[in-house]
Amino acid sequence: MVCSAAVLSSAGQTWTAEDTWLLMVVGVSIAVVVLLISWLRIHPFLALTVSALTVSLLAGESAQKAVVSFTTGLGRITGSVGVLIILGAVLGRMLADSGGIEQVVGTLTRAVRPERLPWALTLVAALIGLPMFFEVGFVMLMPLVLQLAEQTNYPVLRAGMPVVAGLATVHALVPPHPGPLIAIQAVHAPVGLTMLYGLLVAVPSAIVAGPLFTAYIWPRVPAHVPAAATAAFTTGPHHDGAAGTGSATEDAGRPRRLPSLSVTIGTILLPIVLMTLKAVYDSMPKSHGRLYTVVEFLGTPMIALLVTVFVSLFTFGYSLGSSRRHVQASLARSFAPVAGVIVIVGAGGGYSQALQDTGVDRAVTLAAGHLHIPLLLLAWLIAALMRTIVGSGTIATITAAGIVGPLSHGLAPAEASLLALALGSGAAFAGHVNDAAFWMAKEYFGTSIGGTLRTWTVSHTLLSLTSLGCLLLLSTVV
Question: What are the residues whose beta carbons fall under 8 Å from the beta carbon of 219, sequence distance 6 or more?
Fold first, then answer.
């Protein structure tokens, strides 16, 4: 059982003064992160770097050993996770620049009745959110949501909250998003199996936080979208407006038509399918046939995303009439937005390595054993606490993974996968005023601070609690 593995490992071990000190070191390191990020407004990369060095030095390591621990962890996590983040960003950019988002939203919203629109928008956001970071998907979909609300007189919260739920759910629970990838790396979980469990848990979580919660909350919270907001948005590369980019020469190389719905969804789901096939093959008795070798290769996360990126060059580019210059420009624009994410993830790897090298895992294991906290719930609680304090789900996952990761050694693949998802679930908890995306939602939806707390914050809390409940249920049968 994933819920009890770490607690059992503490049996027969006695608590020492060194364990007390190491737990205090963890507390100090978390306080350093919170102080630097929330109060002094220092960039998370610098905050995590200082926190990692603090852990090593307070635990009695030499300055040289502290630096080695940090750089080793940074290189390890950047090499394994960073490339996946980059490939995901490229795929998301190709999807956005091709007009694929418009195609999916337009087709599904035309195909359903108004009372079913929140369900359709939740599905749309989850699909589009698979290859996109939460903030990118949010900004890309908001113009379409606001136009829908304006043109059809549809309540903006009734259209917007399902989008928030769909994006937030896959961001928290489904690779290749940074949070789940960091958690997978930290607890040594298989990507394919974690993705399967993540998708399974994501369905009820998105339903509760999306259409069900939306049906309750939208009539109860006033929302008046500022006129300046709709005027400032465009729906993509096929429309003119304040946010339009490019000269007439560049526009000539843009896609001449939208990708079809089937091609768009097929391209988005291709890496999911490849990684899922690998997970299915891995669960079977080992085979050395040619088919198994091909599936094993194509289902490796980096290869699956790389193949999909090359497919997207045609499905979202050349086949639509895009010039090579336009496709190249889309590729070039993919990298800058994720640079900040990668350096933060790298610093998180350094922080995690510092915790492991100082022996904090033993102290945390003993503490969990004495407090009788199951490992899965412990992971969720630490991540939820960090999300509430710091505001960033990615930083919450990084910090919690650094503390919980060393406790995962010896877990079965299914148990490790549930543990990784518990970290993502906790990191989705209670986003509020210290979360930058909270203020984005406030402005886009035109709600008050109190109204945003009742919508955005409660939606994320429901997502976190529902996914935790699903994980606890799964832990009883795997």
Answer: 155
For residue 408, the 8-state DSSP code is G
Residue 385 has, within 13 A of its CA and on its CB side, a CA count of 15
Distance CA 438, CA 276 (A): 33
What is the pTM assigned to this prediction? 0.73
Q: What's the pLDDT at 10? A: 44
Residues 6+ positions from 361 with CB-CB distance below 8 Å: 355, 405, 406, 407
The b/e string for 434-467 (b: 16+ C-beta within 10 A; e otherwise) is: bbebbebbbebbbbeeebbbebbbbbbbbbbbbb
Residues 156, 445 contacting (CB under 8 angstroms)? yes
| Residues of the chain falling short of pLDDT 50 | 1-12, 231-252
In angstroms, the CA 172 to CA 470 distance is 14
Can you tell me the distance from the alpha carbon of 456 to that of 464, in angstroms, rounded to the nearest whole number? 12
In our burial notation (b when 16+ CB lie closer than 10 A, e otherwise), range 302-336 reads ebbbbbbbebbbebbbeebebeeebbebbbeebee
